[in-house]
Each structure stands twice: as C-alpha cells, then as structure tokens.
Amino acid sequence: MSSLSFYRVAIPFRQGFKHGSAERTQTQAVWVEASRDGVTGVGEGCPREYVTGESLETAERFLTAHRPMWERGFEKLDDMTRWLHENEDIVDQNPAAWCAVELAYLDLFGRERAQSVEELTGAPPVRGSFRYTAVVGDSDADTFDATVGRYRRVGFSDFKLKLCGELDRDREKLALLRKYEVPENQVRVDANNLWDDTGEAIRHLTALDFAFFGIEEPVAADQLDALREISRAIGCRIILDESLVRIRQLELLLPDPETWILNVRVSKMGGVVRCLDLLDRSNEMGLPVIVGAQVGETSLLTRAGLLVAAVAGDSLLGQEGAFGTFLLEQDVCEPPLMFGAGGTLDADALGLASRPGLGIEVTTAESIFQPL
Fold first, then answer.
1. Angle formed at CA 365 by CA 357 and CA 360, multiple of 5 degrees
2. Distances (CA, A) of 82 to 163, 218, 229
3. In whole angstroms, what is the distance from residue 366 CA to residue 332 CA?
4. pLDDT under 50 in the chain at which residues?
5. Residue 355: closest CA among 118, 129, 131, 128
6. What pTM did the predictor assign?
7. Euclidean distance between CA atoms 220 and 240, whole angstroms
8. CA-CA distance, 101 to 267, in Å (whole number)?
C-alpha cells in the first residue's frame, strides 16, 4: 500500500509574466509525493482557472476525495491506467490535479522497477537534443526589445509572442522582431482568447501584416467555426490550446485537419498517459503538434514534456518550457532541466534515458512546499 502527500508549490519568478488571461509573479502548482517501502515518486500539475476551470482549491478537494482509493489500489501501472480510463469524466474536470498524481505514481513505479518512465510506458527513450521556442510575454517596448535581443544573442530562431489586442503595441512588437531578423514563418502568436467578435479578430490580425505560421486561440474557447473563418481570412493555421482539453475533441477536427495545430500541454491534458492516447489519434489524423508548457512549470513537468515530445516525433512543430531558473528564483532539482544556447536541451548530457522513474532528484528547500 502506498501513501500520498499533497502540497502547493510557491516559487517566485525572477520577472513577472503577462498575457491576455493572467499576470503571474510566482508558480501556481500542486505537488504530489507517492511513497512505498522507502521509495518516493513525485508529480506536478498546474491548475489554471482560464484553461481547465481548476484552482488550487478544487485540486485539493479532488485529491483529498480520492486519496484512500489511490493509496490502496495503485499497486502497478495497469491499476492506475485502469482507474484513469474508468473515470475519464472525473479526470476531465481535474486534469492538472490528476496529472500530479499520475506523474508521482509513474515516478514511483519506475523507481521500484529500476525503469525509466519511457521503459515503463513503452515510449521511445529520451535522447538527443530538444529545441525550444522563445516565449515572449506582453510587456512594454523596452522590456520586449531587451527580451528578444537576449533570445537572439543566444541563438533562438523560433518565437512565440503574446498579443495584447492594442494594434499599435502589437505592431511595435512585430517591428522589433523584424529588427532582430526573426524569420516571419518561425513566429507564432498567442491571443489568449482576446476577441469576442470574429470580425474584429480578423481585422486586427490582418492589420498586423505578418506571415505567422500559427495563431493560437484568438477568440473564446471552443468556437471552432469562428476559428475556421479566421484561418481562411488570415491564411494560416490555428493553434488549439484552451479549445483542446479532451481527447474526444479531436473528432471535431476531422473535416479539415489542415486548419489546425495542437498545443499539447501535459498538465492541461491530464498527464502523460492521456497525452500518449491523444498522439496516437492525432498522428492517424495527420495533425501536427506543439508540446506546450504552463508558465512557471518546474523541471518535473519539463521532464514529462520531453517524453511527449519524443513520442510526437515527426509531427512535432515546436516545444515550449524548460525555463528553469531563467524564470524561477529556484527550481526543484540541481541542475535544473533548462534550455541552453540556441534554445536546445541535451537529454544525453543529463542522462535521463538511464535514470529510473522521471530521473529527478528533488534538492530544493522544503519551504517552497506548503501542505494542501
């Protein structure tokens, strides 16, 4: 029988991060530890009210309600995946909280069996280099300029920037990208559901006069017909994030898979197993993916994202996250999993393929973990 402990993680950011739905100065995450016979696995999830309707409070209620069954019933991976598939509707309402539980048990099972999470789940080993996107929040012109300049000096070529909806400010941001000779077809923008009116979104995006390779969530979530109209008018694909939180939503994309790119965030989707199920179906449909990240993830969710990116293979168009202590005042492990020159993370140098479980050894001060 295992035992579970639940915490919230509070790590200040080195610099605030702002977009159309929120402004953050520290992490908002739940942390789960699953222990048995002296072995402990760890998991992380990032509840977001504006993405999945979750908060730290709803996460606490979900975790507390199901703890006895999980502690008693999860002896091996099959037990956990069976519970997941039998309780999809419950997980649909609590994906980030479940993600933390699932990762903790995957880590525990892997450590107990001396297997990596890839060996445990049948995924390919995490090897080689992974290239990350430079993500630039909504900030004043000087801060934006300095941020883009730093990214370019260390070799980033792929950029994602947050739109604010003010035409002059958004144009100014794009002019700065041009100043730094960022190729337009390697830029995507995220509007975080800015516009209520489809026509207004089209007018704004057209006026920017920029050849983006993708536009993420310009209108309210789940407005697929409006998104199709925007895609046709602007001439580029739509990246689905808030509009893709459940696997069954993929079937709505069958008529026009060429319109869409999927933003697959491990926490948002409800863990690694559901991400792998989604990739099985999205690959059949020919849908490209971006492995996204929540702002403020620690190295633990970065590690989970590497597994998903490896499985995505040729369908992977971009990868987000791995900010580590570039954003956080401290991370949970040393060294943190974070990108280096050119936005690349060398999995071989970290030896992740040969480490049991998730391969993360928590070294940070206990003060950042506050019991739920």
1. 15
2. 41, 37, 40
3. 10
4. none
5. 118
6. 0.95
7. 11
8. 11
